[in-house]
Amino acid sequence: MRERALPRRPAVRLTELGFGAAQGGNLYRAITDEEFAAAVDTAWEAGLRYYDTAPHYGLGLSERRLGDALRSRPRDEYVVSTKVGRLLVPSPENAHRRDPRGFDVAESHRRVWDFSRDGVLRSLESSLARTGLDRVDIVYLHDPDDHWEQAATEAVPALVELREQGVVRAIGAGMNQSQLLTRFVQETDIDVVMCAGRYTLLEQGALADLLPAAASRGVGVVIAGVYNSGLLSRDRPPADATYNYEQAPPELIERARRIAAVCETYAVTLPQAALAFVRSHPAVVSTVVGLRSGGQVAQTVARWDADVPVELWSALRAAGLLATAAPGQEQP
What we know:
The protein is α/β, with parallel strands linked by helices and about 325 residues long.
C-alpha cells in the first residue's frame, strides 16, 4: 500500500487507503470485539497503516477497540488519528437507553461540545486512556460547524501547542462541509483536513474552494464519506440507497445510476470508480473508508486495486456527470 506524506509534516506518512473505525463503535448495528479485531488484522495484512477513530464513535467504544487491536503492533509502523470537540460525560441515568446518534451502544455518556483549551486537553487525555496507546499522531477538530470562534481561537492554539511539544505530530479539522474547512486552511496553522462527502464521484463542491486552498497552502486532504454514506457503495444503487445518512432523493439515485452505467462501459464498477476518482487529485493524501469486518476490508482493497482507465473521467464529463475544473484546478 503506497504512502503519502503530509506536505507540512513530511515525517507523517499516511497509506493512501485508510481504515475508518466508526463501525468499531457499532455504527448502525452491533459487531463483536472479535469481528472488529479481524477487520484490523485483515487491514494490517493488506498494508493499511492509517487508522482513524473518535470519541463520538460509539461513545468511546471505537477508540477502545482500535487500541486493543493495535497495541501489540510496532508503534512507529502505523498512524492513528482521533478527534476533539465532544467530551464524553458519564450519564448513568440514561444507561438503559440506546444511543440516539446512530450507534448501537448504551447511552452511558452524553456528548458535550467543548472546543476550549481545557476541553481539547481533557478530550485527548481521555482518548489516550481509552486506546491505551502512548500517543496519537493526528488530532482533528470534530465537526466544529457551529463553533468557529472558539475552535479557531482556543482549540487550534491548544493543538499547535501540543504539536510543538511533540505530544501530537499533526493537527487539523474534520467536517462534512468544505466552506468552513477552507477557512481553517486559510486562517489557521493546521496541517491536514478530513473532508467527508463533499469531494466524491457524485459531487465535487470541494473542488471550488477547499482543494485549491489546501494545495496552495500545503495542507493535506483526507477524503472520507467517499461513497456518500452508501449511495455509491454498490454496483447499481438500489431504490432505498442512503445519502448523507438518510434516504437518498430520487434525483440523486438516478444520477448515481447514470454514473454507474458509464462506468460499466469501461468495465469498472461504481465503487471502484468512486475510490479511484478521489485519490487522483494531487491534494488528497489518503481516503478513509469505514470498515467493520475482514470480508469488507478484503472487498475494499480489491476495489482499490482495480484498474480504472483515465478515459472514464472524460466520458463522465462529456455526459455532464462530473464537474469541470476551473483553470489551474487539477483533477483526474
